Amino acid sequence: MNAVVNDDQYMTHVTDLGESEVVTASEDIVSEKGVMLLPKGAAINKKMLSKLQQHSLDQQVDQVITIEDALDSAQIMEIGQLLLKEHPEFAASQAFLFDRTMPIRSFGRLRLNTTTRNKLTVCKNQKPELFEHSMLVAYCCMCVADLMKVPLIDADDLITAAMLHDLGMMHLSKEFHDHSAIYTPEQERQIASHPIIMYQILAKFPEYTTIANLILEHHEHLDGSGYPKALVGKTSLPSQILSATECAISVFQKHGYNYTLSVLKTHMAEQFNDKVSKCLIKILNSWHEASSEFDFPRNYDDVELLYEKLNTSVTSGAKTLSTLTNPFASSSAVIHLKQRISAIQVSLANVGLDKLRGATTLKMTSDDDDLIIEIGDVIQDSIFQVFDSIRIFRRQLHPESKVPSELTAWLKQTEDTLKDCFLGE
Q1: Three-state SS string across 217-243, please?
Q2: By CB distance 3.0 to 4.6 Å, which of 53, 116, 296, 313 could disulfide with 414?
Q3: CATH number of the domain that 285 lies in?
């Protein structure tokens, strides 16, 4: 399990920061071959970018630079307090905590060294949306930790891992930061390397051993559908809190409250720890009740159209997968895809939305707004599962595999048909 830690993209972020902040070489910057690139004290800015990118450095970038105003734990705690002032609905979850001040105070105990302080500073300045995502994940992790009475030492590891969990993304090309894009199998594998990248950076520091492992596992799921190791139920409670919370916050930021609630309810006992999921549902409910913003109202016509597109895609997918022949059909990537599509069909059938009864079930709910919302949640969750199963298929697919044309056609048609089918956006 290795990933090449490519500093080129991250170096671009660092030199961009040097245009507005004081960034200097903390020591002589030398290439792996011993070539002097910049002397100690030299300014790091865009003028230096090409020179620094022409060579592999002897050390990681963050170990040889000084950012004059690098963030520390006290400053991040202040940012957390400002976040709650700007979004008071997030503070609503404090009402039922055992220690209402615990989530914000935890930011003051972040375990940061020069490398992590630099990385967080670059992230805040160059990728503010990623930094705010990390803040929200960390805050929500601490709310869950309080509700589950996680020991303080584990909570401190957890909040530090939550703040650092996605910083590996800054080492990937800009093209991988478009969450609406559809990626090739190779691109999916590159994106899936971001936990490994941050793990490898932190694994060099003995004090970060536990935190590095939490970051490595923040996309693992209890049912083995996660990455990078596809672990099955072998992660610690802090890791399970980070995994479920990161997923919930990502979905919440992109698709809103109702959709996130549906994902959590559906996967309590599969991908996530059910006790963690219940805590997250409690937190999200409090945010929603305190918020003045509501998801886009659903109506029968919207839900009916969504179901028709989903049903067509799932039915044709199951048919296409059943026609595949060995050895391709017996590959782990295809087997997983078959299982996921079959599970989606079962889930839909359980609520009367199978191919035969779906239209009738929908008509029976046309005058019941609450039922329409519930069915809309089920349909949206199924769409989420279709996309998730395709992402995992692309990630698991062997680089030299030749995908049959009929499956390629189904993948493209499904992604084109369903990519804009999220109610409430």
Answers
A1: CCCCCCCCCCCCCCCCCCCCHHHHHHH
A2: 313
A3: 1.10.3210.10
End-to-end CA distance of the chain: 37
Angle between helical axes of 300-322 and 332-350 (0-180°, round to 10): 140
One-character DSSP codes across 319-330:
HHHHT--TTGGG
C-alpha R_g of the chain: 23
Domain count, the chain: 3
Q: What is the pLDDT of residues 278-330, one digit of tens each?
A: 999 999 999 988 875 545 446 788 888 889 999 999 999 999 999 999 999 99
Q: What is the dihedral of CA 411, 414, 416, 420, to 10 degrees?
A: -140
- Does residue 194 share a domain with residue 338? no
Q: What is the pLDDT of residues 24-78, one digit of tens each?
A: 999 999 988 888 999 999 999 999 888 888 888 888 889 999 999 999 999 999 9
Q: How far apart are CA 316 and CA 323, in angstroms?
A: 11
**pTM attached to this predicted model:** 0.83
Domain identity same for 79 and 53: no
Quote the Cα angle for 136-140-143, to 5°.
150
Please indicate, yes or no, if residue 130 is contained in any of the structural domains: yes
